[in-house]
């Protein structure tokens, strides 16, 4: 990450810091929490591929931790359905499929369009202040997209949507959405590796922001629904290019293939190995919003 991307502009509204941001630094985490973050990121970026068997000995050595914290991390990933613990077999990375993507994305579209519409009906002064904050986040997303930094694009994409949905005042619906998002993160990483989709996503964010600023709930909800389902359309149209990643790729005609698969493979081959875990002992950790 470049120095420019990590600096906070002097004019940035302080309230932006209330929108969920980057994960805590390693030294503020217990080993099992740090291992969970490291393994989750590897799964999201494809460095650990769907169906891949996970050797506890190898992973413990790579991460520089014992098997106890590693098993705790794997159990958390299993709860998010990112890994599977099959009897008498090694842990494996969970498979992904078109059917799973459709289920997740249709659920997200319903929830996110509802939350976006509700956000557009929030008090005008609160909404105006938030729109100013969102403009900053959108600009950061565009910068990350231009740099080809998929991790940063994911970060600003997520914070942009969180900033909108927080205006809705619907915590139960947000909790349900968080559950679906945990399952969809791998898909998001795949299609944001495609530069053209990443630029389109930022443009769609700008349109959603305009509708939110205008206080137009119908347009805000409709644009958000289209935005979410656009990701699903891209995934189902490119699965044929990812036989090693998607379990039902044979159901997609070969002429539906695009460059997304190559982009995703290129992205995961450029990832660097993480540093070893922090030393024993705990520093009071920063708060991390738990997944629902």
Question: Main traits of this protein?
Answer:
292 residues; mainly alpha; Arc Repressor Mutant, subunit A; Four Helix Bundle (Hemerythrin (Met), subunit A); 2 domains; three-stranded antiparallel β-sheet; elongated; disordered C terminus; transcription regulation; GntR family transcriptional regulator
Summarize the structure.
Residues 1-10 have a biased composition (Basic and acidic residues). With 292 residues, this protein is mainly alpha-helical. 60% of the residues lie in helices and 3% in strands.
- Taking Cα atoms only, what radius of gyration do you get, to the nearest Å? 19 Å
Percentage of residues in strands? under 5%
User: What is the ordering of alpha helices and beta strands?
Assistant: HHEHHEEHHHHHHH
Number of strands: 3
The residue-averaged pLDDT reads 77
Strand order of the largest sheet: 1-3-2
The gross shape turns out to be elongated
- Percent of residues in helices comes to 55-70%
Question: What is the CATH topology descriptor of the largest domain?
Answer: Four Helix Bundle (Hemerythrin (Met), subunit A)
Contiguous uncertain segments of 5+ residues: 1-15, 20-27, 240-275, 279-292
Largest sheet composition: 3 strands, antiparallel
Q: Can you tell me the CATH class of the largest domain?
A: Mainly Alpha
Distance between the termini: 29 Å
Domain HTH gntR-type: 29-96
Region (Disordered): 1-25, 243-292
InterPro entries: GntR_C (IPR011711), TF_FadR/GntR_C (IPR008920), Tscrpt_reg_HTH_GntR (IPR000524), WH-like_DNA-bd_sf (IPR036388), WH_DNA-bd_sf (IPR036390)
Protein name: GntR family transcriptional regulator
């Amino acid at each position: 990450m470049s120095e420019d991307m990590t600096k906070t502009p002097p004019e940035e509204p302080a309230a932006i810091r209330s929108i969920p941001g980057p994960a805590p630094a390693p030294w503020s985490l217990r080993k099992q929490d740090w291992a969970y973050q490291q393994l989750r990121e590897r799964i999201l970026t494809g460095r650990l591929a769907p169906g891949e068997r996970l050797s506890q000995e190898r992973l413990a050595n790579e991460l520089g931790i014992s098997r106890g914290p590693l098993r705790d991390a794997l159990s958390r990933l299993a709860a998010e359905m990112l890994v599977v613990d099959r009897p008498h077999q090694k842990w494996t990375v969970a498979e992904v499929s078109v059917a799973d993507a459709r289920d997740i994305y249709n659920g997200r579209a319903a929830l996110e369009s509802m939350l976006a519409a509700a956000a557009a009906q929030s008090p005008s002064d609160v909404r105006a202040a938030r729109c100013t904050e969102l403009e900053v986040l959108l600009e950061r997303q565009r910068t990350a997209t231009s740099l080809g930094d998929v991790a940063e694009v994911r970060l600003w994409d997520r914070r942009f949507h969180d900033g909108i949905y927080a205006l809705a005042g619907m915590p139960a619906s947000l909790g349900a959405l968080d559950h679906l998002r945990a399952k969809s993160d791998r898909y998001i990483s795949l299609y944001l590796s495609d530069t053209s989709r990443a630029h389109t996503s930022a443009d769609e964010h700008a349109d959603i922001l305009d509708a939110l600023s205008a206080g137009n709930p119908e347009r805000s909800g409709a644009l958000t629904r289209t935005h979410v389902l656009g990701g699903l359309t891209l995934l189902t149209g490119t699965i044929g290019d990812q036989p090693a990643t998607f379990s039902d790729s044979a159901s997609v005609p070969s002429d539906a293939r695009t460059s997304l698969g190559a982009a995703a493979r290129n992205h995961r081959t450029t990832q660097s190995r993480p540093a070893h875990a922090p030393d024993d002992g705990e520093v009071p950790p920063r708060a991390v919003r738990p997944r629902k």
